[in-house]
């Protein structure tokens, strides 16, 4: 005749200890056992005795009915329910194997339950979005960003066209002179009240490019280069836009605007010359910007496009945001996890750039999955130029994988494996770091614990599954 079945409830004990805010040492003292024995119990390497269950109930005023269940059987039932999901229909999953998993590997069982919980909540969220019509109404900005990101913000046909144009512009002296000589377009600077709020306007009838007279020199050059892009590369831009097959005209317009800006930047910073310069100056953005007569933002933006085969440089991710955290530009040339969403983590010092305008901030970053990056952030200013003209202060950041950082002047001599990195997340909704005091929202797929017994430093206590 077999004896009573051993009682294992390690994950339940660990969950209880965390809810009570106790260390293993503190719980061991309460139960009059050693900390190592608590660790063995939590890992299901030791069964609970009747005496220990009574001690636990007395120490923390718990109902014995809440403790008496079979943890392995409970996990087994929950796993069986999960594995009935149609997504697993074609996999042979014998009940005995599921029971063995639940009893022998409770940690893995907990991980599977947590993943499935996140999956089902995401499915429900998508269903709600679809029911509300969101799925039928794509976001034009997100769609445009996906199009550019899918090509790593590199358009070789545009770079090739711009390279030839840049040589001719150099012969003419500058973009304004080139417009006059090649296209008969005169560039004029006019006061703001005449421009009626516009910074650039092309007067087709009189063949004039009109620019507001408060523009900085590098912005005026860029606007002239932009007009060249529309004059000479309109067909190339339209062909690339048609390739996307976009559902809305807004998306197509956003893409056309982005591609025209790409051409303008490539005219002012032609690929080969620019690529040589960034290597020679070790990616010093300010030094390269002075060399090409461009702004800090224009130069940083251009650095995300250097992916020509056999002439590739450090792959970067680019982000621009305002003081409220709104992201107005996102460009990916590095496979950075922030490419589709994110960038709002307050632990990333791109947000601190506003406290010291004009200064370059550097930071090593580490995501929850262990990926490491290095970032450069600085504020940039647009608008202004006159006393009552509004000035917009934004921050831009470039980030690259940690292994590339020693090539940058900002991290010369550093060993990426030894530096201390800030633990950031893609966004609060996608970050599962449980102890982040800066968290604004709970992550998708995690339940928030009640705080009857304990309130931690983190804004939300997260349940195990």
TrEMBL record:
GO terms for cellular component: cytosol. InterPro entries: Cro/C1-type_HTH (IPR001387), HTH_RamB (IPR026281), IrrE_HExxH (IPR010359), Lambda_DNA-bd_dom_sf (IPR010982), ScfR_C (IPR018653), TransReg_Diox_bact_type (IPR050807). CDD domains: HTH_XRE (cd00093). It comes from the Bacteria. The keyword Ligase does not apply. Residues 13-67 form the HTH cro/C1-type domain. Keywords: DNA-binding, Transcription, Transcription regulation. One of its GO terms (molecular function) is DNA binding. It holds the Pfam family ScfRs. Belongs to the short-chain fatty acyl-CoA assimilation regulator (ScfR) family. This is HTH cro/C1-type domain-containing protein. It comes from Novosphingobium sediminicola.
């Amino acid at each position: 005749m077999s004896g009573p079945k051993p009682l294992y409830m390690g994950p339940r004990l660990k969950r209880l200890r965390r809810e009570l805010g106790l260390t293993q040492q503190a719980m061991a003292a309460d139960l009059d056992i050693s900390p190592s024995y608590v660790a063995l119990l939590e890992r299901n390497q030791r069964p609970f005795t009747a005496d220990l269950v009574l001690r636990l109930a007395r120490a923390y005023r718990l109902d014995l009915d809440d403790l008496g269940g079979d943890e392995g059987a409970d996990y087994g039932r929950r796993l069986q329910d999960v594995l009935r999901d149609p997504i697993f229909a074609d996999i042979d999953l014998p009940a005995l194997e599921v029971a063995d998993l639940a009893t022998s590997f409770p940690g893995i069982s907990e991980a599977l339950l947590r993943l499935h919980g996140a999956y089902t909540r995401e499915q429900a969220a998508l269903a709600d979005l679809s029911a509300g019509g969101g799925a039928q109404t794509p976001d034009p900005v997100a769609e445009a960003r996906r199009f550019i990101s899918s090509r790593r913000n590199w358009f070789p046909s545009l770079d090739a066209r711009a390279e030839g144009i840049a040589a001719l512009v150099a012969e003419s002296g500058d973009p304004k002179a080139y417009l006059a000589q090649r296209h008969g377009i005169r560039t004029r600077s006019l006061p703001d009240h005449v421009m009626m709020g516009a910074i650039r306007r092309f007067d087709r009838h009189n063949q004039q490019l009109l620019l507001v007279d408060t523009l900085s020199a590098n912005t005026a050059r860029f606007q002239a280069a932009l007009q060249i892009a529309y004059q000479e590369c309109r067909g190339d831009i339209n062909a690339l836009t048609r390739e996307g097959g976009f559902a809305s005209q807004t998306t197509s317009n956003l893409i056309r605007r982005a591609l025209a800006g790409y051409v303008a930047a490539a005219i002012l910073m032609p690929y080969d010359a620019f690529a040589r310069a960034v290597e020679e100056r070790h990616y010093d953005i300010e030094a390269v910007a002075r060399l090409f007569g461009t702004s800090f933002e224009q130069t940083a933006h251009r650095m995300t496009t250097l992916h020509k085969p056999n002439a590739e440089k450090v792959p970067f991710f680019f982000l621009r945001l305002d003081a409220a955290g709104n992201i107005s530009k996102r460009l990916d040339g590095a496979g950075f996890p922030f490419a589709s969403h994110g960038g709002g983590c307050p632990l990333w010092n791109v947000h601190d750039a506003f406290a010291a305008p004009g200064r370059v901030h550097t930071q090593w970053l580490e995501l929850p999955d262990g990926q490491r990056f290095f970032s450069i952030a600085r504020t940039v200013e647009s608008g202004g130029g006159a006393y009552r003209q509004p000035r917009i202060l934004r921050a831009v950041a470039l980030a690259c994988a940690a292994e590339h950082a020693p090539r940058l002047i900002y991290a010369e001599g550093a060993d990426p494996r030894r530096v201390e990195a800030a633990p950031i997340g893609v966004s609060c909704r996608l970050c599962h770091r449980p102890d982040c005091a800066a968290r604004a929202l709970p992550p998708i797929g995690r339940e928030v614990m009640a705080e009857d017994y304990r309130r931690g430093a983190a804004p939300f206590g997260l349940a195990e599954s």
